[in-house]
Amino acid sequence: MSTITTEKQQYLTYLLTDGDSQVAVVPERGGIVTSWQIQGKEVFYLDTERFKDPNLSVRGGIPLLFPICGNLVDDTYTLAGETYMLKQHGFGRTSPWEVTQKSTDDGASLTITLKSNDETRAVYPFDFQLDFIYTLKGNTLEQRFRHTNLSGQPMPFSTGTHPYFAVADKTKLVFEIPSTDYKIKGGRDVFAYNDRFDFDQEEIDFAFINLEGQTATVKDGDTTLTISYDENYSTLVFWTVKGKDFYCLEPWSGPRNAINTGDFLLSAAPQETVETVISMTIS
């Protein structure tokens, strides 16, 4: 049985329930998923103190990345001869979203919508509508993202997510990543991945490129996380910080600075909708 209910916490929170699985979505706080519990066990990490402060970006759950993934050089990009400023990961994760549709016909499904406004046009000169659909079916959470260009010219963008997965002991994780090539944040060199990470480092920030498949898995004891993504996603970022009980495995459609370089940059023609899909399963 599927249900969708609401709770008034600091922000209005939507609870999607299907069987023993429950997902919490906070549209007002960047459309973020803050929690995913399966039989009472939490999948995601959440820094609750940062979440409470609307002036801080959220560390935890699933922040939404649009219209860029990662950071830009000097936080700036140039388009049609004009220079604009965008902070890391764009404004999708910091904007208030609106619930526009709910369904419990086939799992618990919630559509949240973000429309362009004066604030977004000041840093990204396009009219758009984003309809992001979360669907919970048992132990699978699907994220279907629809990016509609309402402008009269092509709209370039990157899209992605930044999920924070809770972990008790990172050294026990077993990864299967569909690439042996990665770049380190801020670098151009390509390194070879040897199926393990050095968690003694203060920070690990690897962008896997040349993906050879659409699925990555992480085994944590008897639990396996499977992340699947469609062909629009070219980059898979692994990020963690020493001493923190999380790791991030992030599907990005384009690498850092793509809006400047054009590398794997998506584009929606006028009045076109570009749809991308990410799915996560716990088994």
TrEMBL record:
Record InterPro entries: Aldose_1/G6P_1-epimerase, Gal_mutarotase_sf_dom, GH-type_carb-bd
GO terms classed as biological process: carbohydrate metabolic process
Domain of life assignment: Bacteria
A GO molecular function held by the record: isomerase activity
Pfam family, one: Aldose_epim
UniProt name for this protein: Aldose epimerase
